[in-house]
Amino acid sequence: MDQRLLAMIVTKIIVPRGSNHSTLNEGDLILIYYIQHNMQVDWIYVFHDHMLKDKRLMDFRLPYEVLVLKFIEYFGIYVEDELEESTGLLNHTSN
User: Fold this and answer.
1) What is the pTM for the complete model shown?
2) CA-to-CA distance for 61 and 51, rounded, in angstroms?
């Protein structure tokens, strides 16, 4: 696989970030190395770690929303009575 394409997939889809998709960090490089050498990747850890890192950012939005919803649907998890937690970021309007 082309290294540039793999780098783009890692930084925009697997571990997306708000900006600077062209600079790879250490985690990106390790993930690319594992993928290129057909090594086993602990995807749960990758997604979990990325979600925890994103939560600390000011412009937090839940990554992998479609993936999480597919899991909820597949396993038939009832979420109607769950509590919602607002970050307050969606309520800001600019004039």
Assistant:
1) 0.64
2) 9
